[in-house]
């Protein structure tokens, strides 16, 4: 009894310490709107903390449109507006929201308003779905820059709503989020140990209870190269989903793309911004130490590359 | 099964609950249950090697019985030699066979013979073999010397050999300490169990927060030593000193703490060795169960220091070299043993080898005197330098490391391989050393303070330290498992 009581008090003290020093990561709530667009629940603020000992801290602000930005998205017919669409690199939880690529870009392009539509997990299919769903907004925007990461953003050729990430917003996970100590242990990977062990046990049990009866011989599986699949996915999405093609520019690291896709960009006159070149000649590291997102120097280089292209055109 | 694994933290409460929870068991059932639990614990790693423990248990049990029934000294001696040859033979085969074959091959080549094929074997070293063979050997030796009466209870003896908290990395228990406890029915003591939990927590902190967090840096520095300057190499060595201490003493604390949960007291293995003022004191505080084993079963039988200085010097070199070789089949460990013998010798010749026995640094006062502090620093530096040979993969690397350490005295800023702030580690070690200094009077009481609130905060901060320095990316075993 005494040990249990001590244990409980220690847990309470730990909860306090974790809160006081803000060791945990605030994760905003997610949602899927009526049009099937996955984004953050509007109007939330918090800190995104990385690493056991606050190695990286970024403040976020989810605006009324459900994206991390210091701006509200109110495009007009008379201003020059640029939309920046992409995954976590554009979402930018690893930096303060008021030091984002969009903000840097605005300082480099006086008079241009930048709207950042970043959401971790977006791929090209979800980005085109966003563009088509909110066409009333994007029609007023003059330039659209889509960050395209090869091959991760080209794994599928059509959009379907995935509720996988939203699972974390319900049931036990929602309750667990109330304890910052639990959130912290999950962030540092400690909670993953029992969870992984349980899922391993579950897999083992299900394998024993229901062994695979039919195994397809490997020679019967038609294997296409991944490169072909990614190329086909891009082609399909570009040809069927992309409207206002002349407005769209892709932000890419050209060297990471296969020759076939590079050629396709050329023949189709698809506009690209290659941030790979300034990264190659960078004088210092362009990514953060604790994860592979761009650091402030990397963001500066990316913004400059975008600004140069926009000015050029 | 690792002490710092999830499996162990599921295993331990289950075994603990069954052990104490199911009524008042008879002694035999208590022992049988501990034996089964120990075999599960060991078999989790590799059940095939359970047969080795079982064989070792059976042989030494029968030898014990044989020695008791033998009336003539010759027969008793014969039994003892069977035990020695069996245990050392098993250890030699699994641990040293390849080393001797390779060394023989090199020697033959140096003499001009052509060695066409190496007779090395692809053998896996059974975890803990160096520990449990020494434990069973001590049983036979104690019976032979008449210090111990052999037990007739086979289950009790098997439990003594394979008691899971200390099976794989010690402390190397003496039959005279552990067997009587196993032969006595245990009753639950809240105070003992609570002490055990505190030691487990402290041991985990030393293992996870100190040893494992420093290991990343040490591995990097030792692997790429040729690219670093002297300041980084010095940092790597100092961090290794703390890594190996945190790792092994952390293991010992968890081991002693776990045994306490089952009503058994194991011997202390570490007594704040880095607060030693000379090498002799260091060896009275570092891996105590091994150094006393060598003292009692090797140094004293060889004549110790009773038969003149020359023989005493010879005996000192023998035990340090054997102790080094016990750690592993590599010339680096022999050199390490030799260095410690050389460092011990002047202390011995000046008659200072027992100067600080049973006395703590800064005895009776909070702050130690400056001279003692200088002696401490000198001992720490010497021990730390000697660790180079312990940690390096081979002699060439160790020599290269030391050569670069002294030959390239530049100072450079070191960056953590995973990008963490280095200042965190300096703060951690600073606090750790200060705290160890505060609790230096009793290694078995890591939180000796009377104030309840203070104690609660210390427990909380220890857990917080574990969380702050826990690294999910690395799954680290204990260093001494390889010995």
TrEMBL record, chain B:
The keyword Nuclease does not apply. It holds the Pfam family MBOAT. It is found in: Cell membrane. The chain crosses the membrane at residues 6-22, 51-67, 79-97, 117-134, 312-327, 422-440, 452-470. Keywords: Acyltransferase, Cell membrane, Membrane, Transferase, Transmembrane, Transmembrane helix. InterPro entries: Ac/AlaTfrase_AlgI/DltB, AlgI, MB_O-acyltransferase, MBOAT_fam. It is a multi-pass membrane protein. GO terms for molecular function: acyltransferase activity. GO terms for cellular component: plasma membrane. GO terms for biological process: alginic acid biosynthetic process. Its main location: membrane. PANTHER family: ACYLTRANSFERASE, PROTEIN-CYSTEINE N-PALMITOYLTRANSFERASE RASP. Belongs to the membrane-bound acyltransferase family. This is MBOAT family protein.
């Amino acid at each position: 009894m005494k040990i249990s009581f001590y244990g409980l008090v220690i847990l309470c003290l730990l909860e306090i310490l974790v809160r006081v020093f803000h060791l945990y990561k605030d994760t905003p709530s997610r949602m899927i709107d009526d049009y099937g667009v996955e984004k953050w629940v509007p109007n939330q603020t918090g800190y995104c903390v990385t690493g056991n000992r606050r190695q990286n801290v970024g403040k976020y602000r989810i605006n009324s449109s459900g994206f991390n930005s210091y701006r509200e998205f109110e495009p007009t017919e008379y201003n020059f507006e640029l939309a920046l669409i992409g995954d976590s690199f554009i979402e930018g939880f690893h930096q303060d929201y008021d030091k984002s690529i969009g903000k840097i870009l605005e300082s480099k392009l006086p008079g241009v308003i930048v709207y950042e539509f970043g959401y971790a997990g977006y791929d090209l299919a979800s980005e085109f779905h966003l563009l088509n769903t909110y066409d009333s907004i994007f029609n007023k925007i003059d330039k659209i820059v889509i960050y395209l990461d090869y091959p991760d953003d080209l794994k599928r050729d059509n959009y379907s709503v995935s509720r996988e990430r939203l699972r974390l917003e319900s049931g036990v996970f929602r309750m667990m989020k109330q304890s910052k100590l639990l959130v912290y242990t999950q962030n540092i990977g400690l909670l993953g140990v029992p969870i992984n062990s349980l899922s391993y046990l579950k897999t083992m049990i299900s394998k024993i209870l229901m062994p695979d009866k039919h195994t397809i011989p490997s020679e019967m599986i038609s294997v296409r190269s991944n490169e072909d699949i990614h190329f086909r996915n891009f082609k399909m999405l570009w040809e069927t989903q992309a409207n206002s093609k002349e407005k769209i520019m892709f932000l890419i690291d050209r060297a990471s793309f296969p020759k076939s896709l590079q050629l396709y960009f050329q023949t189709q006159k698809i506009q690209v911004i290659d941030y790979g070149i300034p990264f190659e000649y960078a004088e210092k590291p362009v990514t953060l130490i604790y994860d592979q997102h761009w650091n402030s120097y990397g963001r500066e280089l990316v913004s400059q590359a975008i600004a140069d292209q926009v000015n050029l055109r | 099964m690792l002490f710092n694994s999830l499996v162990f933290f599921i295993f331990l409460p289950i075994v603990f609950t069954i052990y104490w929870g199911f009524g008042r068991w008879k002694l035999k059932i208590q022992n049988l249950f501990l034996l089964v639990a120990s075999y599960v614990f060991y078999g989790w790693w590799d059940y095939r090697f359970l047969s080795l423990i079982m064989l070792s248990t059976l042989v030494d049990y029968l030898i014990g019985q044989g020695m008791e029934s033998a009336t003539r000294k010759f027969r008793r001696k014969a039994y003892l030699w069977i035990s020695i040859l069996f245990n050392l033979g098993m250890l030699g085969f699994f641990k040293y066979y390849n080393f001797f074959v390779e060394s023989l091959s090199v020697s033959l080549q140096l003499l001009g013979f052509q060695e066409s094929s190496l007779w090395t074997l692809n053998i896996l070293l059974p975890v803990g073999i160096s520990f449990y063979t020494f434990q069973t050997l001590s049983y036979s030796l104690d019976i032979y010397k008449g210090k111990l009466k052999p037990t007739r209870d086979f289950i009790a003896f098997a439990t003594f050999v394979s008691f899971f908290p200390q099976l794989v990395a010690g402390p190397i228990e003496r039959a005279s300490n552990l067997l009587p406890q196993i032969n006595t029915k245990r009753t639950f003591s809240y105070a003992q169990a609570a002490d055990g939990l505190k030691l487990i927590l402290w041991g985990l902190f030393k293992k996870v927060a100190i040893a494992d967090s420093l290991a990343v840096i040490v591995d990097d520095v030792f692997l790429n030593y040729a690219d670093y300057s002297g300041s980084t190499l010095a940092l790597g060595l100092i961090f290794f000193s703390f890594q190996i201490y945190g790792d092994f003493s952390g293991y010992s604390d968890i081991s002693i703490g776990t045994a306490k949960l089952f009503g058994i007291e194991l011997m202390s293995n570490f007594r704040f060795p880095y607060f030693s003022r000379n090498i002799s004191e260091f060896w009275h505080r570092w891996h105590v169960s091994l150094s006393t084993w060598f003292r009692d079963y090797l140094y004293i039988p060889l004549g110790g220091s009773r038969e003149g200085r020359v023989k005493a010097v010879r005996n000192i070199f023998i035990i340090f070299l054997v102790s080094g070789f016990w750690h592993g089949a590599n010339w680096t460990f022999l050199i390490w043993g030799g260095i410690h013998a050389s460092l011990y010798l002047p202390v011995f010749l000046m008659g200072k080898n027992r100067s600080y026995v049973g006395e703590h640094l800064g005895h009776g006062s909070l702050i130690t005197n400056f001279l003692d502090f200088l002696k401490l620093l000198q001992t720490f530096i010497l021990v730390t330098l000697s660790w180079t040979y312990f940690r390096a993969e081979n002699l060439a690397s160790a020599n290269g490391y030391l050569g670069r350490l002294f030959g390239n005295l530049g100072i450079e800023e070191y960056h953590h391989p995973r990008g963490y702030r280095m200042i965190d580690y300096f703060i951690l070690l600073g606090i750790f050393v200060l705290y160890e200094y505060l609790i230096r009077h009793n290694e078995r009481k890591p939180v000796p303070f009377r104030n309840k609130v203070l104690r609660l905060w210390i427990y909380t901060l220890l857990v917080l330290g574990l969380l702050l320095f826990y690294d999910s990316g690395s799954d680290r075993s204990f260093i001494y498992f390889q010995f």
